[in-house]
Amino acid sequence: MATGAGSEQFVTRARGARPKRIVLLGATGSIGRSTVDLLTRDPEGFSVAAIAGGRDHAALARTAIAVKAEFVAIRDEEGYAALKEALSGTNIQVAAGREAVIEAATREADLVVSAIVGAAGVEPTHAALALGRDVALANKECLVCAGAPFMRTARERSARLLPIDSEHNAIFQALGGEDVSKIETMTITASGGPFRTWTREAIEAATVEQALNHPNWAMGPKNTIDSATLMNKGLELIEAHHIFGVPAEKLDVIVHPQSIVHGLVSFSDGSVTAGLARPDMRVPIAHCLAYPERIETPAPRLDLVAIGALTFEKPDLERFPALGLALEAMRAGGGLPTVLNAANEIAVEAFLAGRIGFGGIARHVADALEAALEDGTAREPGSVEDALDIDHIVRERSRGALAMNRASGMLTLQ
Amino acid sequence: MATGAGSEQFVTRARGARPKRIVLLGATGSIGRSTVDLLTRDPEGFSVAAIAGGRDHAALARTAIAVKAEFVAIRDEEGYAALKEALSGTNIQVAAGREAVIEAATREADLVVSAIVGAAGVEPTHAALALGRDVALANKECLVCAGAPFMRTARERSARLLPIDSEHNAIFQALGGEDVSKIETMTITASGGPFRTWTREAIEAATVEQALNHPNWAMGPKNTIDSATLMNKGLELIEAHHIFGVPAEKLDVIVHPQSIVHGLVSFSDGSVTAGLARPDMRVPIAHCLAYPERIETPAPRLDLVAIGALTFEKPDLERFPALGLALEAMRAGGGLPTVLNAANEIAVEAFLAGRIGFGGIARHVADALEAALEDGTAREPGSVEDALDIDHIVRERSRGALAMNRASGMLTLQ
After folding, report:
1. Which residues in chain A have their CB less than 8 angstroms from residue B309's CB?
2. ipTM attached to this prediction
3. Which of A128, A301, A350, B387 could pair with B381 as two cysteines, CB 3.0-4.6 Å apart?
4. N- to C-terminal Cα distance for chain B?
5. Residue B17, pLDDT score
6. Among B11, B170, B270, beta carbon nearest to A301
């Protein structure tokens, strides 16, 4: 009996004697904070080789102490002195700047959590992959902006990519290791956002406050606006296309307002498997941190009886033209997803700043895609650097176009 | 390019050059016919070592020719001459009787499909397992009547058990090879049957015709009545307990009238995976036949948007006492599931023959469990033979009790 109890304990801590070494890039953002929440609950399961953040030196110092990080990098060099000061008296090493973030990314580790938001996350994540590190990926740009070259590096270095996005994580779990060549369709769900039931005219004229009022998820403003245009689902399909290696024509989106079923995979025999969870990012983060084991989280458990009904609708590309643009960019491939993503990000900034209307986001993205096709900017990026160059060019161009829009916008959009 | 196309073809027929050798036990029943439908669609993928059936010699002869079986066994010796005659001029070997069915079960094969209905399926299926054959299991009695010793043989001989039941197959797919020790709960769904919304009094007085009117599945009369009492879900939980090795307290049932989600598994991190499909038995049968590959079936594909809503309710043990009895039998273990199953089968026969009312089924099972606990019949069966002995004793006793009931029933139940 004593032997039995002993062997059971071994099963619950099957990762072995050594804690799993984690690098956390983007430690002070939304995903970063949820990751820290899980890491600090299981100090025997995980050790933290390095963390990196952008500007918030105070939060970064608190986090470094909480997770007992060995090394901390702050991207903004102006924060260096304050971070160094806050960590004086600890053994934690401190460095600042772009190279410092890359150093954090490439420290010896079992898993790199890539949660830096935006294009700034691509270079350090790619550096980790190039060393063959396994990466838990929350940064969208790695796949949307630089998908093909990014995945090439992962394949060449046999680095494993684990998706943190709830949709891709659900699909990864639903696949259960089965070969992607056997699937008929791969479907992600969309909550439909705050404008799911609105008319096209009402959506066109939506205010920033209305667009930020997401029914199910608490996210940053950029992602919340992308959820309102449904552009986020287009970007996620492009991510799924790359991370799972699924042809564009097998990918689909359905609207599911309860946000419980996050992704589904269907097979040629008629079987379908699905990944479900309450909307809590700690669930997919914990799955990635522990994979292929599991850890316990305090996330609320799914109770389908309490929820009562799960409903499903077809997404309306008329009312949500941004999704249609993303589907076109994914199908056409080349550099179009890179252009789409960059133009969208600048358009969302312009909307949040009150410079264009809600309907102007998709119109700007459509214009940017057309311009890039005409002048060759939408060429297939040959490398991650090439993709980041296209991204940079499009952002600059979009900023210019939307600055001009501002002047006329004062007359036509208000 | 030519190389690429060639390697793709290899992927779609990855089973290799040799067709998979199948034994099909119960070839003329509902599961058997669906299996034959799939086998005849893929003659290059499968060859049939043997088939076995009960009484229907004409159907068995037609099936043997259709699947090009090498050997056919008919359980009923009276059918031998007619079967032999129908297959004269073919190379198909013919034999009859109990031993012949065991010979069919133990012919050299890659997979034995166990689809004989009732206790008659246990001995041949167990004989196949004892030789280490992989078994696709549709027969309920193997696990409900003789679960512990049956699974012991499978473990000892390293035989793989693949579940054909839609609920267990869905869970098997949802598990995706993950270790069962990591799960928090395992849930099967119930359609709720024809009496889902009926009052307790109306259910008590339900007629045979009403009970046979199942909303979603076309099944034999025994299974259809079990779906109306919800006893089928109790039997399925007992099966899940054995086939997946999950403790009784982690097993659950929820009512899901659309019968689309068939089973769910939840993990300690809050993730849930689910298996879904339209109600068509060819889906789980095809999954088992091809496992770990996949084959294409003509089964209708799942369209969640067309279905619109999936709803979930708590099962009501007050109105469906048979489910409560099964849960008690599963939790108590020992020989109680064996007693439950035998008593239920005789009670359902009595109901179908008009000898007891619908409410009498659960009352009879409760009486049988109590009697077996009192006199030691509910002892833990030490072997498959022992379990079949208990099964036999309980059936005889139930027949006796319900024959007596008949006389008084004429006065009180009509």
Report:
1. 309-312
2. 0.92
3. B387
4. 76
5. 60
6. B270
